[in-house]
């Protein structure tokens, strides 16, 4: 189906409440101009928009509307057969050139950035304070034939795929503010190959969210250490007034690899990070601090005096401290 005829008649759908389009239009020759196109209209009754198509086609459809901030939006860019290096601008391409057509982009307060190596999907999912959601996703290839991934720590070779990791680094460190400019984001979750994001990129990522109150960093395979994340949290903010990056943080959750065995000194560095933040203008006492680490089977399978000492050491910095140890033989996936 050609896109222009659809766009020319869409403004006549005055009672539209739900719009769902899945690969309806022919590939675009280029990102067309809206010169001569009807002015975008504001559908009063539209509650949900779901589109999967080529990114330029998605943008053209969205440009026909000024969607209310009460409308849920789900966008999936079909990029099957395209390399990861070519996907850098796919998210922005899906959006209308005039961002006023999609005001929810400036209204979201929570954000989840996910790299799912099994389905080759890379998603930004955001919600407003009232629970209205927008998701931006791209698909690089068809999902693999179903098989049991539960016993495989790295089913798609993510650790051996530098391009995969570099793309996640861009998703974390640069794209959130490009996609959601000026949004008052207070909660951020980063789920994926944490080890692909170096220290300076974590600093850049956190600096995007001066109003952040809740942070979760989850290495989904539990293969990667959290040292760079912790070091970034112990960095001074480049913004004024002086203080730690994300000075309003009051909840932190971290999940990753702990090494061969329980190392109290490694956890001391995490505690020292919280002490530094407290001394340099961060929250005096966090509401919640949760850390989950994977260790080799048999090395840390029981709670010990060392674990109890670790818990006592964190008491001055958080009202609630949770230390979780994962030691399931042959499995590097955690249950929520």
List strands and helices in order, with pairings:
Blueprint: H1 3-9, E1 18-22, E2 48-53, H2 55-62, E3 72-78, H3 90-94, E4 108-116, E5 121-128, E6 133-139, H4 162-173, H5 175-179, E7 187-192, H6 199-207, E8 214-219, H7 227-233, E9 251-259, H8 264-279, E10 288-295, H9 305-314, E11 321-326
Parallel strand pairs: 1-2, 2-3, 3-6, 4-7, 7-8, 8-9, 9-10, 10-11
Antiparallel strand pairs: 4-5, 5-6
Helix pairs in contact: 4-6, 6-7, 8-9
What does this structure look like?
β5 (121-128) and β6 (133-139) form a beta hairpin. It is elongated and about 70 Å long. With 336 residues, it is α/β, with parallel strands linked by helices. The model is unreliable at 143-156 (pLDDT under 50). The chain is built from 9 helices and 11 strands.
Coarse structural class: alpha/beta
Helix and strand string, N-terminal first? HEEHEHEEEHHEHEHEHEHE
Distance between the termini: 43 Å
Helical proportion, percent range: 10-25%
